[in-house]
Amino acid sequence: MSIAHLGLAGDQRQAGDAGHRSDSRGDRVPPHDLLAEQSAIGGMLLSKDAVADVIETVRGIDFYIPKHETIFDAVMSLYSHGEPTDVIAVTDELTKIGELTRG
Q1: What Å distances lie between residue 40 and 12, 31, 62, 96, CA to CA?
Q2: Which CATH architecture group holds 3-101?
Q3: Which of 4, 8, 9, 85 makes the best surface tag, with the fewest CB within 10 Å?
Q4: Which residues pair with 20 in a beta bridge?
């Protein structure tokens, strides 16, 4: 099972039914690239070196999908404490902070 198969609880910034962010100027959707978000998170789950590379240019708030930001923040928390950032560790962290629900 991967994080993609688990639902995240507490997405408090959902706009509309899709849970995506909307532009502050109305209903316009801000520019985003879901594949880039998934690739960045995937790389971070595979390698601490990738975490170091990604955090040079990306912040949690940069993610369009709130769930991606939640995962990113969990990876960052683990990384900042010198903990592993693999799928199992991140899943455990998300469970511990109450962000995972089985869907």
Answers
A1: 23, 17, 12, 23
A2: Orthogonal Bundle (1.10)
A3: 4
A4: 15
Q: What is the mean pLDDT of residues 4-13?
A: 49
Question: What ranges make up the beta strands (E) of 4-89?
Answer: 7-8
Map out the domains of the chain as residue ranges.
3-101
b (16+ CB within 10 A) / e for 81-94 = eeeebbeebbbbbb
Q: Each residue of 29-81: pLDDT tens digit?
A: 778 899 999 999 999 999 999 999 999 999 999 999 999 999 999 999 999 99
Residue 57, class by beta-carbon neighbours within 10 Å (0-12 exposed, 13-18 middle, 19+ buried)? exposed
Distance CA 85, CA 75 (A): 6
Q: How far is Cα 94 from Cα 101, in angstroms, rounded to an integer?
A: 9
Q: Cβ(99)–Cβ(8) under 8 Å?
A: yes
80 sits in which H/E element: helix 66-80
